[in-house]
Amino acid sequence: MVSRKEVASLAGVSEATVSRVLNKVGPIREETRLRVEEAAQQLGYVPSALAQQFARSRSGNLGVILPFVPKVHLFSTYYFAEILSGIGEAAKQYGYDVLLIFREPSGSRDYARLFLAQKIDACIVLGAQNVPEEKTALAELQKKGYPFCLVNQRFAEEGYLSVDADHHAGSYEAVKHLIDGGSRRIAFLNGPDVFSSSMDRMSGYKQALANAGLAYDPALTLLGNYSRKSGVEAAEAVAALIRSGQVDAVFAANDRMAIGLMDGLRVHGIKAGVDVKLVGYDDSEGSVIVSPKLTTVAVPFYEMGRRAARRLLAPEKDGLAQADEGLLPVHLIKRETSS
Amino acid sequence: MVSRKEVASLAGVSEATVSRVLNKVGPIREETRLRVEEAAQQLGYVPSALAQQFARSRSGNLGVILPFVPKVHLFSTYYFAEILSGIGEAAKQYGYDVLLIFREPSGSRDYARLFLAQKIDACIVLGAQNVPEEKTALAELQKKGYPFCLVNQRFAEEGYLSVDADHHAGSYEAVKHLIDGGSRRIAFLNGPDVFSSSMDRMSGYKQALANAGLAYDPALTLLGNYSRKSGVEAAEAVAALIRSGQVDAVFAANDRMAIGLMDGLRVHGIKAGVDVKLVGYDDSEGSVIVSPKLTTVAVPFYEMGRRAARRLLAPEKDGLAQADEGLLPVHLIKRETSS
DNA sequence: TCACACAATGTACACGCGTACATTATTTCA
DNA sequence: TGAAATAATGTACGCGTGTACATTGTGTGA
User: Does position A326 have pLDDT exceeding 90, yes or no?
Assistant: First the structure.
């Protein structure tokens, strides 16, 4: 292995000068720089990231904490793939590497330890839930001043750094679209309220109803867990509501449940888009594959990942922090299940 | 920040003893161990991974090189998510972290530099292609003795470490299934031959035809690029072949193309599963969402990722290397498009 | 020409850990 | 009981880099 020493020796300078040339710090005579660069080139010298990290006391790693989802082995593919990809772009831009952290099945969340061990300089928590253990873990990060950012989740009272989309507006749009199309009895298949996005969607749903002078009926709100299966399972109840004339449209909090619901309803002889209108959420790949095509709400997951990383990594001077504030816009995509 | 020094001081031993206790090396008096552990606990001491890595000259990172796929921002979700998840499990098991490496859009492949910089101790290359730049990059890794493993790709002549599934057998099964169902004129929508899996599928396709006494007709083989769009684009040609009676079934090299093809054919008034049989490949999420449900070949992506990581990280003594050799089995899943 | 500013480089050390080697304490065995 | 073996611990240093500080070189202005 070739180190700074050999380069210095070959270039006929001290190690410090080599370091300065490579890090572009301090004044260097042009001739010296060339000699050093030449020597480094010739020896194929590559600085040891290990030594650099150690000397700088910075790992240069951005940790990304992934939720443990037992069914799909890792993640509800589309959603996380996009976010991760956005994170990757920003990380690269700012010279950071992305360290993947798979949460334990046990649910242990000792995020602070990752900082203590200096494995990461900052981290993005995906799929954070509003449960006590999570809140404790995040509070510890906050207290110790470790930089972290949530994606698609907010803890209103805590004021943690987070990047989120405007799910209230998205749901409002979705439900308003159904109302505009003539629906008056709209069921809502929501996800668990440990996710702020579920709460946001609920409020958007309610507001759209209220704005149209429609009453909110708790009996029309069903609870799923964002899985396809839970959509299928909701079908029976939804079918009954449809048959009894209590429901003429359904808004599902994500596409997976919406698609599961479509399948489940089909068994009951009910066809989405014909017998009942349906709107999903996420604009996932499945939404255009399914038949009829699913009306849904597009969420800029890629951009959300990018912003989260940028907020953590961008130097203050870039002044991006401000530009990155606020909820990202979502937009309704009208397809076949709502016309 | 609390370091070994404070722990040693509090426990009344030397730093070396602290190190020995925590690393469980050498004989330690029980009482001493307890004192040290107590002290570490009390101080909340967490060893600096940075310093450890530096001292050991090992990063403890398993690099995962991700292909650059412009359209889907990161990856054809299901496929990579599963592999990545499997890698994550094995990495965790062997005490490694997963460092994500997003390939440059430019296509630069200086994998060796990652090792030179000591950023990773081993790496898994996803989506490797049989193109000159790739071969050069991999040859360099091999030459320098850096441990790496390919997934779902082989370079026959080079003998690189790789984990692959038996796509020849999978394709054979798929096409045989179509033949058994009465099809005699089977088109093949394959992917680019820079992927060995494409070549494997081709040979399986040919063998199934040959075994059934059917002639291989190059005119019935179409080329896509594994994207949904390319499936849609192939529809016109396939539709013509079907109309002219030259084709009564199609085998597509992955689900995305198969699903795109279904959509494309629908425009031409041709319904998969009714007017033409269709088999896809991958058993992706979409295959059960699409209607009619797609017959496909299930590939153990998760297990492939796990094995790739295990091959690189498992200590010799575990003797897993041998168990992990050979192609992983795939299996046909019969659904609606082929009955 | 001399003093002084600043450019350019060298010297020296810290960073926190693993570990080879030296040293001391304890056991074993005759 | 004494010597040898072994357990238990301490001492000392290397790992490769960043960088504070010291030193030397190079103008600059009166």
Answer: no
In B121-218 the beta strands, taken as DSSP E runs, fall at 122-126, 148-151, 162-163, 186-190
B312 in the Ramachandran plot: left (φ > 0), alpha (ψ -120 to 50) or beta? alpha
pLDDT at position A108 = 82
Of A57, A102, A113, the CB nearest to B88: A102
pLDDT top residue among A79 and B77: A79
Q: Return positions of chain D under 7 A from a protein CB.
A: 7-12, 14-20
pLDDT at A105 over 90: no
- Estimate in Å the CA A22 to C1' C1 gap, whole number: 40
Instruction: Give the end-to-end CA distance of chain A in Å, rounded to a whole number.
Output: 66
| Average of per-residue pLDDT values in chain A | 93
Fold of B61-165+303-327: Rossmann fold (3.40.50)
Question: Within an 8 Å CB–CB cutoff, is residue A117 touching chain B?
Answer: yes
Between CA A204 and CA A226 the distance in angstroms is 18
Which nucleotide does the CA of A17 lie closest to, via C1'? C9
The tokens describing B316, both together, are 């010799």
Would you call B290 and A291 a contact, using CB atoms and an 8 Å cutoff?
yes
Q: Which residues of A225-257 are buried (b: 16+ CB within 10 A; e: fewer)?
A: ebbbebbbbbbeebbebbeeeebbbbbbbbbbb
Per the listing, tokens 């031993």 go with B13
The count of other CB atoms within 10 Å of the CB of residue A269 is 9
Share of chain A above pLDDT 90, in %: 85
pLDDT, mean of residues A20-41: 94
Q: What Å value separates CA B32 and C1' D3?
A: 28
Q: What is the mean pLDDT of chain B?
A: 93
CATH code that applies to domain A61-165+303-325: 3.40.50.2300
Asked if the C-beta of A155 comes within 8 angstroms of chain B's C-beta atoms, the answer is no
**Contact criterion met (CB < 8 Å) for A49 and B117:** yes
In CATH terms, the superfamily for domain B167-298 is Response regulator (3.40.50.2300)
Domain boundaries, chain A: 4-47, 61-165+303-325, 167-298
* Residue in chain A nearest B85 by alpha carbon: A74
| Closest amino acid to nucleotide D20 (CA–C1') | A16
B80 inside 8 A of chain A by CB: yes
Give the model confidence (pLDDT) of A276-316 as tens digits: 999 999 998 889 999 999 999 999 999 999 999 999 999 87
Under the banding of pLDDT at 50, 70 and 90, the label for residue B197 is very high
Q: What is the pLDDT of residues B122-160, one digit of tens each?
A: 999 999 999 999 999 999 999 999 999 999 999 978 889
Average pLDDT over residues B323-334: 89
Query: Which residues of chain B make contact with A50, given a CB cutoff of 8 A?
Result: 50, 53-54, 57, 59, 118
How far is A176 from chain B, CA to nearest CA, in Å?
27
The answer to whether the beta carbon of residue A22 comes closer than 7 angstroms to any atom of strand C is no
Locus of tokens 């070549």:
B199
pLDDT band at A73 (very low <50, low <70, confident <90, very high): very low
Whether nucleic acid strand C comes within 7 Å of the CB of A162, the answer is no
A124 part of contact set with chain B, CB < 8 Å: no
Q: Is A193 on the interface with B (CB under 8 A)?
A: no
In angstroms, rounded to a whole number, what is the distance separating the alpha carbons of residues A263 and A261? 5
Question: Is the pLDDT at A69 greater than 60, yes or no?
Answer: yes
Task: Tell me if B61-165+303-327 shares its fold with B167-298.
Answer: yes
Residue B157 burial by Cβ neighbours in a 10 Å radius (0-12, 13-18, 19+): exposed
